[in-house]
């Protein structure tokens, strides 16, 4: 069959103007990456960071306005300030898994891929080494997922979760 909706796992429909409350927003992507002991020692964290870096030029960004955020998760949720006013990416750990508070301005977490490219590449290169000595075996993915959804709630977007094991603490723990 030549029908795209049957050949591809994701198919997007663009609503006509009469169905829109506001004009379409530029694409936003939030990557939630497992940085627990298992993920780091298995090489999953390093592989995820490398693949995301390799895909920066292939993310939909025709207008140059697409945005991206990175969230790392183990027994806590790690946010990365990647904003233009930050010469070096900064991280902040949020250990409270029940009511995740976004620690920075959304504009410093969800950044323009084009404008903040050097900070994005910098944190992706450093990510495996930042957690290289971790002994944290638990993963609070549900809490990190809620944080990612809260981050993109005003504009919409896609959350991509990269996990090596099931969530074991926080919301959605198995």
Describe this structure in words.
The protein has 174 residues and is an alpha/beta fold. Helices cover 30% and strands 18% of the residues. The protein is built from 6 helices and 6 strands. The protein has helices spanning 4-7, 37-42, 44-55, 106-109, 117-130, 141-152, and strands at 28-34, 67-73, 77-81, 90-94, 111-112, 158-162. Strands 1, 2, 3, 4, 5 and 6 form a 6-stranded mixed beta sheet that branches. A hairpin with a 3-residue loop joins strand 2 and strand 3. Helix 3 runs antiparallel to helix 5 (117-130). The longest helix is centred in the C-terminal third of the chain and has 14 residues, at 117-130. It is globular and about 50 Å long.
Features:
about 170 residues, alpha/beta, 6 helices
Strand content: 15-25%
The overall pLDDT, averaged over residues, is 88
Helix count, per DSSP? 6
SSE sequence, one letter per element: HEHHEEEHEHHE
Distance between the termini: 40 Å
State the helical fraction. Answer: 25-40%
For the secondary structure, the number of strands is 6
Label the structural class.
alpha/beta
Rounded radius of gyration (Å): 17 Å
- Give a short account of the largest sheet: 6 strands, mixed
Q: What would the principal axes of the Cα set say about the shape? A: globular
* Poorly predicted sequence stretches spanning 5 or more consecutive residues: none
